[in-house]
Structures are given as structure tokens and as C-alpha cells.
Amino acid sequence: MGTPVLCWGRNTEGQCNVHDQADTDVIQVASGDFHSLALKSYGAVLAWGDNFSGQSTVPAAANTGVIQIAAGSYHSIALKSNGSVLAWGYNAQGQCTIPASATSGVTQVAGGQYHTVALKSNGSVLCWGSNDVGQCTVPGAAASGVVKIASGDSHTIALKSNGSVLCWGDNSSGQCDVPALAFSGVTQIEGGATFTVALKSNGSVICWGSDFFGEGTPPAAASSGVIQIAAGAYHAIALKSDGNVLCWGNNAQGQGDVPAGASANVVQIAGGRLHTVALQNLAPTIGGVLPAGGPTAGGTSVTITGINFAAATSVTFNGVAATSVVAFSSTKITAVVPAGTAGFATLTVTTPQGDFTAPDAFNYVELSSCPADLDGSGEVDGGDIGLVLLDFGPCP
After folding, report:
1. How far apart are CA 1 and CA 354, in angstroms?
2. Do 259 and 230 contact (CB within 8 A), yes or no?
3. Using an 8 Å Cβ cutoff, are 169 and 133 in contact?
4. What digits encode the pLDDT tens for the residues 297-350?
5. What are the φ/ψ torsions at residue 389 (nearest 5 degrees)?
6. Which of 29, 116, 33 is nearest to 73 (CA)?
7. CA 227, CA 10: separation in Å to the nearest integer?
8. Helix (H, G, I), strand (E, B) or coil at 274
9. Degrees to nearest 5, angle at CA 333 with 331 and 337
């Protein structure tokens, strides 16, 4: 089974050597300049790549209860389920020194080069760390009504509930000169080193600020059908509704060379300074069920084979949960079938990365109708008799 996390581009610091525990159960990715992060479904953070400042040394507090991850250039950030913020790594500018106001009530986090941004549940923005160009001087317009936040190297970005964008901080390349197209209808925001990216409700991408490598000029393919955006230092990334990834801008380290594995099943993207990270949807696939039938009273122990089962959270038959579900491996689950009505049942396996439904996968049979076509072969034959003897006992 392949890993759900893909990385491409610069790998000098190991930022594209995906953590061995990121092989399953990853629900979110993020990236700093030269390190990468992943969030597991049970709330633990993984980190790999550059660790010069300790940004890839995950503290114990980030081993559980984390619901969102982000990264600055050389620091990592985690939002806990209780609304508190954790940060670790480079702290020379105080970007990892969490203020009291960020110990509760936070709903989103973001990281700049040397500063950290948090969104409170009341719609206000907090910033701490470097403020050399005003990136942490929150304007009055960002004191309420903000629904999303992002950051470039030294500028901060906020999306208001009315779909308008605010920017403050470094404006040396015009990255804070919000264009008229971003006064309404914006649904997502991201920041590169010195440029800003926004996604419109019609699925088109707009950029402003620097355009040194073409990062500020979205290709025609990004004019519709985009559902998510991200940015590296000088490259932009877009996820299309069909699961394909687009990249444009600086490609000096191959960060814009989208691999074949990111061609149809990506669900999230992130950008490092010179690398790109993507999360694939490795939803489960059911191959077979043995035995393929049993009594309507339930209680049949079955083995389900397939792929991407390691993080399975539930198994249902016609929507009713099975019991004693055990995911032995990524290819095998055992479960006890619940009671059901006579006839073929739909089997569904659920994981954090999706569901797979197999119609007519299990045949419920009334004991009084034994023998019957338990294996779905179209006739009562030796296979059914074997199932009868195994699961029902002798026919009356």
C-alpha cells in the first residue's frame, strides 16, 4: 500500500522523505520552509525534514488532541481540541511563546516566517512574534468577522465573513494591495513569501504581489474548478475538483513537477519554501467477504479482504454496525455480522480517508429456507452446503 502523503521538490533536508508513520491514517498535512508535518486521525503530529531549530521534534503535548497543524519557516504550530495553541522550533522572535489569549478559544492557526497567527472563536485575529514590518499589528477590521487566516513570510492575511480579504505587514511587492476582485466572493486565502493567493467562489484563483517566477500569474487551468489553494515561497499550488494538482511559479527544485501519483486522488495540498506536499485519498477497497452468507439472526464471523483497511473505524451491513471489528492489517478485517433481513446486504467499510461500499456483499438467509443460494452463485450447490454446515449447522 502506498503512503497517503506525497512530497516533491527540494529534499536536501529530508523534507520529502515521508515519515514512516505517515503510511496510513493521515488527515492533514502542512509545511515549513524545509520541514513537513502530518496530522494523524487520533490527534498526533508527525514531523520530518530540517530540525536545526527543533521544529521537527514534536513535543509530548502534540501526541494527542491536535485538530489542526501549521508551520512557519522554522517553527511548527498545532491547535488542540480544547482551543489552545502549541508551537515549537525557532523562537528568537517569540513566535513560539504562546500568549495567554491563545490558550483557549482558538479555532485556526497559521505561520509566517518569524510570526504566528491565530483566529479566535469570536472572529478576531491574534499575532505574535516578529513585528518588524507590522505583520503582528492587527488592524481594527480584523478584530471581528474574520473566518479564515493565512500568512506569507512577513505579511498576514484574513478572510472576512463577507468574502473580502484583509492584508497587513510587508508590502514591498504589493502583497498587501488587495485587488478589487478580492473585495467579495473569496472563499480561501494563502500567502507565499511576497505574494498572496485567493480562491473565489466560482473556482478561480487570483494572485497579487510578487511575480518574479510567474507565481503571481495563475495558468488558464486555474480559472475554474479549483477547490483548494496553497503556496510555497515563490510557487503556487491549486487542487482541482477532479483531484488533480496544479503548480506554477518557481520550479528550480522541482517543486512544480507534479508527480503521477498526484494526478487524480489528492484531497489536500501544502507548500514549503522549495517543496510541495499533498495528501492522497487512499480510501478502502473491498475485495471479498468470507463466508459470503449467514443467518438473519446475525452472529456470523466474517473476514473482509481488500486494501487500505489499517485505519478502519467501522464496518456496517445495510447501515447496521458490525461488532468485534478488528483491522488486522491494511488488507484484512474481521467482524461479527449484525442481525438483518433476508436477502443480499450492502457492506461498507469506513476509514478516516473515505468509505467503500460493496453492494450485495453478504447474503442474509432465514434458517427455515435452508439450503439456499448462500454464496450468490445463482444456484444451490456444494458451496452453499459448505456454508450451511459451517454457519448454520445441519438443515432441519
Report:
1. 16
2. no
3. yes
4. 999 999 999 887 877 889 999 999 999 999 877 789 999 999 999 999 999 999
5. -65, -35
6. 33
7. 26
8. coil
9. 150
